[in-house]
Structures are given as C-alpha cells and as structure tokens.
C-alpha cells in the first residue's frame, strides 16, 4: 500500500508538471501569434496607404488605373490575412482554455487517487476507538508479530477505560424474553451495588443464553475494574401488593404444581396444590392455594413424591 501511495504521488506530480509545461508552451504560442498579427496588420496598413497614394496618382494621370487596382487588391488581401490571424489567435485562446481545464481535471483526479491511497494506508493503522488502558494485545495466549495478517473480526487488542465501564451479563433464554432496552437493573460487583440501565439485547442465542449489555448509571464502587465477575438483577416488571414465596427449584411461572406447606405444629408439611404466576430469579407470584404467612419447603422434594405429608427435622 505504501508503494501505491508513492505511485499516486508521482502521478500527481507528473500531472502538475504537464500543466506547467502546457502553460509555458501556450505562452510561447500566444507570443508568436501576437507577432504574426502585428506583422499582418503592418502589411495591411502599408498596402492600404499605398493604395490611397496610387488612387491619387491615378486621378492625376501619373499612374494607370491598372496599377492602382493592383495595389487595391493587395491591400484587400493583406486585410483578409490580418483578420484570419486575429481569428486564429481567438480560436487558439479557446482551445488553450479547454486543454487547460482538461489538465486541471487530470490533476484533480490524480489528487483524488492519492487521497484514496492515503486513506487506505491510514486504515491499515489500527487505532482504538476510545482512550484507556491496554489490557490485552492479540488473542489470549498468542503474540502479534510485525507484518502479521489478521482476518476480519480478529481480536487485535483490548482497551479499557476504568471511568467508562459497562456491564455484560448472560441471561438464560427463557428469562431473556422479558428483557428490553431501557429497563433498570442493579449490578452487584461484590464490593457494592451500582444502578444500571439495559442498553443492548443481543438478537442471537448462544449456548442457551442471551448477551445483555448495561450502562452503569450510578457511581462505581472501589475496586471496579474490567472483567470483574458480577451479579445482576434486571427489573423486567413491577407488581405491587403481590403475594409471593421463594421459588422452588422446580417451579415455573404461570403454572400449577404441588408444594409442601408447613402446618401449624411447625414440624409437619402437607402436600398442597398451588397456582403460580410470574416468576423472578428467587421468588414467584402466588395466584391461589397459599395464604399470606404460609411457609413452604423450597428444597428438592422429589424423593417424597409418594407422600402426602412429611415430618421436618
């Protein structure tokens, strides 16, 4: 690409030199035309004056009318030659202007090619889109070398700005259906909780998970840094005055299933059918089957599926 830039620079220099050479040639040509016009005009005026003298002499009988007519014809021929030279000079100026514009277009075209080659060369220089600290150069476990070719989409470097961090979380595809841009969230950095807002939801599902990006709207806690493990709660909806319980491991939203409800003796739990609504990460809405204050067993009860009641220890 550097060779292409140098060739484009030479082409532009050649186009400029060609224009300068043309202008000098035209300047010399215009000088020659001016000399020819001046000569033709002098010959015409001399012949016209001679014709006037011969006319006077012919009237006085000193010269014959034939001699006078000869000088008149000569004056007319010289006048015609003078007019032709003037017209030739005018046409030469028009032609010169057209050729000058053509050469200026060639210069502009060469300049555009040079600018394009420089832009292409500049594109080969990789620049980070943001200011920050270099975290990684090349793929993890590899080392970039001078002159190495990289394919489209290859990782060249990782740049981070501690003041402009964002959160990236992977949401199970079942839960991701309710996540949309603009929802609020809380990001737990294990050293503090930060307010956040959903800014992007990936349209692709990878390994049964959807990538969600969040903008951190609150102040960062101490120790926040790139690639930090986090936990995130995204508020997909808010339901006021709802009856809810801790979600059992087998519980799914908008369904009916049996749970073991703790009886008043505090030692026995009986099987109870309950209907549930929307679910969050750790809790689920109760539609029917349970009352406020009821307690249920939230551990795995599959081994007691043949029992209607169990005694707790």
Walk me through what this model shows.
By secondary structure, this protein is an alpha+beta fold. It folds into four domains: 122 residues; 35 residues, no CATH class; 70 residues, Beta Barrel (Elongation Factor Tu (Ef-tu), domain 3); 68 residues, no CATH class. 39% of the residues lie in helices and 25% in strands. The strands form three sheets. It has a five-stranded antiparallel sheet with strand order 3-6-5-4-7. Strands 8, 9, 10, 11 and 12 form a five-stranded antiparallel sheet that branches. β5 and β6 form a beta hairpin. α1 packs antiparallel against α2. The longest helix has 59 residues. It is rod-shaped, with a radius of gyration of 48 Å.
Structural class: alpha+beta
Low-confidence stretches: none
Quaternary organisation: single chain
Query: How are the strands of the biggest sheet laid out side by side?
Result: 3-6-5-4-7
The tally of strands reads: 12
**Beta-strand content bin:** 25-35%
Which sequence of SSEs, written as H and E, runs from N to C? HHEEEHEEEEEEEEE
Number of alpha- plus pi-helical segments: 3
| Overall structural domain count | 4
Shape: rod-shaped
Radius of gyration in whole Å, from Cα?
48 Å
Cα separation of the termini: 78 Å
| Mean of all residue-level pLDDT scores | 85
Helix content: 25-40%
> Main sheet?
5 strands, antiparallel
Task: Characterize this entry briefly.
This protein has 313 residues and is of the alpha+beta class. The protein has three helices and twelve strands, in the order H-H-E-E-E-H-E-E-E-E-E-E-E-E-E. It has four domains: 122 residues; 35 residues, no CATH class; 70 residues, Elongation Factor Tu (Ef-tu), domain 3 (Beta Barrel), CATH 2.40.30; 68 residues, no CATH class.
